[in-house]
Hints:
Shape: globular
Radius of gyration: 19 Å
Largest sheet: 6 strands, mixed
Oligomer: single chain
Mean pLDDT: 87
Structural class: alpha+beta
Distance between the termini: 31 Å
Number of helices: 9
Low-confidence stretches: 1-23, 351-379
Strand order of the largest sheet: 5-6-7-10-8-9
Amino acid sequence: MSAASPITTGARAADAAAVVPASTFQRWPLSDAARVESGRILGGLVYGWMEDGAALPDGLTAVPAPMLVQQQVRADVWLASGPVEAGQTGNVRWRHDGRHLFGAIDLPEDGSGLEALARRAYGDLFACLARTGFAHLHRLWNYLPRINEDGGGLERYRQFNAGRQQAFLDAGQAAFEGAPAACALGLHRGGLILRFLAARVPPQPIENPRQTPAWRYPADYGPRAPTFSRAAVVCQPDGTKHLFVSGTASIVGHATVHVDDLQAQLEETLRNLDAVLAEANHHGGGGFTLGGSDAVVYVRRPEDAPVLRDQLAAALGAQSPFLRRALFLHADICRRDLLLEIETHMSIADRPAAAVAPPPEAAETRRTTSLPDLDDLTR
């Protein structure tokens, strides 16, 4: 990638140094996350290939996708802001701290079809929200096996979209404008996997001016449109702001661009991410930077992961927080002609960064050698 590339913006990495992630989110090696008292964990996702039936700390849930570029198993952990209550509603296992709720659904395929399975899973999800009072979805993670395969005359991803949208409509939820941030990836093991974060505070949905809103896709992409917004900004009462960016890929308007060109797809993906963050800053008051966010890079072809890592280093800086913390996972993207997808998350605390942010080297050492004080987590 040349220095003249439109995605090579050194200011991103520089701006990121001034941003402090909120204390509610941490990305740790699983070994460090396992040392946190279970009552301090609201919930989280564990990325990486583990043995079937492997025990996880309370509240943490598996995303069984292989890590690439020789990364170790990692956990994205949301730390509770108060006492944790746990329960189950239908197929939903949930935990909440009075402020946020983290939920997990794992459903094996039962022969009914992916449309019916998705509708049942989301029906339970909305029943959980109604029962617990956490009415607002902030972020959804959807994983399904064989996402691009034919499911009896209709691609499985399109079957999933039909069931998901119908469940939103059944529950009176925003299935079109105002839908939550989300991703949908194909894994090579497991059944239908849903993870979600909800709260009592509504999010601000964000769209990308370079892309057609997903819920306005033409019928070429299936009988029911995907149900998600490109991102969501959440402003908490204490001033903390969260940004959840949905899975983002090389799509302009509603069409895939740069088919079979890995570098060009990455460049287009980063242009889309820049556009989403610009909208998020406009509507959310500013402060979000791509270089300071915690990303997951989904890669269709494992051999492309080292190339993507090098290209991202050239674009954002090898020592940028983005690249230092990014996870690379093997997964199928929702369209056959897409080679990668990037999702990301960022939190901004309501206090001056210089007063609390440790140097990046110190933060990295602290995460891998000893846990920070959980009463003052600043990473």
